[in-house]
Amino acid sequence: MSSYYDEYIKKYQTLSLREKYEILFPSEYSKSYSKSLKFVRNEFFNLDQLGFDRFLYLYERKYGPGPTQYVKKIYSSWRSGMTKMVRKTEERILICVPPVLNKEKQFKLLAIQIPEIIRQQKKGFKDLEMCTSNLVEVYNKAAQNVVKRQYNLDWFVSEVFPPEELEEFLNVIKYTMLDCLKQSYQSVCKDLNQLDNYIPKTSGAVQISYNISLFSRNLKFDVFPLPNFHALKLPMIEPLFVTKFQYYYKKFLLDHAIKQYKEEAIGQVNNQIAISDVEAVAAQLKKIGNDQEYDTSLDIKGNGGSIHLHLQKKNLGRLQNEIVIGYFKLLLIICAVCVGGYWVLEQELYAILFIGGFFLLSFLVATWDNIKDLEREVRKYERKRRTQFKET
Amino acid sequence: MSGNEERSLKRLDIENKLPAGFNELSKEEQREVIKKLQDQDIEIRGELLRKLHKSKIAEHDLAVGIDAVQRLDQEKKIYSERLKGETGSGNYDVQIRGGDTKFIVPILVVVGVIILGLILIMSM
């Protein structure tokens, strides 16, 4: 503990004043805001003369000549790190620097908001109940959530970018998310359709669970096979490019298409490998004799999610044998209790009766519990087997 | 067209994979996209081979493990073996139990008789 503390102190001493300040007074900035601020500060300190003049012009128009003179005076100290910029000035710079940047950098600044938007979109998926019977509904609801949701962007975004640019930006992000939903649905359906290939034909019990990658949620198998397999119709709104960023949006969508193609190809690879892995493991399990038992878990990656297979084979003969042995033990203990109890009472050894009685009684209870556990195990196993054969 | 030509063409065929809006790009950008797709293809094939390789190793390991368990079974020993491994698509965890449990019954009978005998002796 102390070595960790020493290490922490050593590390702390090497930090710059600003970093120490951030540890002592952690800011309430969001990740995207901190990133944007860092980006704008960096651009601000690397402005060329023309850019800096344009910035000063904008700054003066917005905040007056006094603050502008102050910025001019202290700019080099800020740049060298001698003086720390106060939050108010940081906010002003965040508003006045982006307009003097070129289109590419402005787009980069806007793109910093993307992870936050995706996070907000995914937050909306949390309330969805995922079952095979309502899979289409789940994806439709998720799509509606993507389209209708009001996204909270960092405050400066609406100050810097006009509404039509923001609308275009959000439309492009929504479009990519809807495309991801569409692809995820197709991949999940492919996996579920091939479920028969994933389930090895064994005489034991098979349990399967599926986790959809896009939602990071487990799918409940209440109906199988899937109803309305091709029923998904997502409201794909093709984004219109009207602003100065149209070139970057087209490139962005192109990159998205390439990425999606890669995802799909990797999904197919995963699917093929997963099926061959299941077949290989099942082939090995077939070698296991009838009087042997196995309990196997297989975690595999499918096309649109991960599959967990639990294969179990129990030797029912052994379990029944153990139950019989359990009853036999119970009988022996009861006999011992009766005979021992009678003898102790006859000899009037009440202390032994108390201690020995307690010991034998707990042994009796433990044996009884063990028998009941075994019986439950047999019932559970039989139920699992019945369910498997019903599903497949 | 010879078989070799066909194969080489297939290797380079990415026309079907070109995204919408590709034709609107400049020559330089088109080249960049094609290069990206080819790199991706190579990466995916590499990934496929790597995963296949891993799966083969896992399959072999599991086969060896199960053979070892089968040998234990032939020796009539009571055993519980756990085999874990990583396949190309994930991982497996196999637990096998077995062995001749029948000899436990006579042991239990003998132990029971001894206990009953002792109790009877003590009660006399």
Describe the fold and architecture.
The complex is a heterodimer of chains A (392) and B (124). Chain A is an alpha+beta fold and 392 residues long. Chain A has 3 domains: 2-101, no CATH class; 114-220 and 233-313, no CATH class; 316-391. Helix content of chain A is 68%, strand content 7%. Chain A contains 15 helices and 4 strands. Chain A has a 4-stranded antiparallel β-sheet with strand order 2-1-4-3. In chain A, strand 3 (293-301) and strand 4 (305-313) form a beta hairpin. The radius of gyration of chain A is 34 Å and the shape is elongated. The mean pLDDT of chain A is 82. With 124 residues, chain B is α+β, with helices and mostly antiparallel strands. Chain B has one domain (3-99). Helices cover 63% and strands 14% of the residues of chain B. Chain B is built from 3 helices and 2 strands. Chain B has helices spanning 3-12, 27-74, 104-123, and strands spanning 79-86, 90-98. A two-stranded antiparallel ribbon of chain B has the order 1-2. In chain B, a hairpin with a 3-residue loop joins strand 1 (79-86) and strand 2 (90-98). The radius of gyration of chain B is 32 Å and the shape is rod-shaped. Chain B starts with a helix and ends with a helix. The model of chain B is unreliable at 1-12 (pLDDT under 50). Classes of the chains: A alpha+beta (392), B alpha+beta (124). Strand 3 (293-301) of chain A pairs antiparallel with strand 2 (90-98) of chain B, so a sheet runs across the interface.
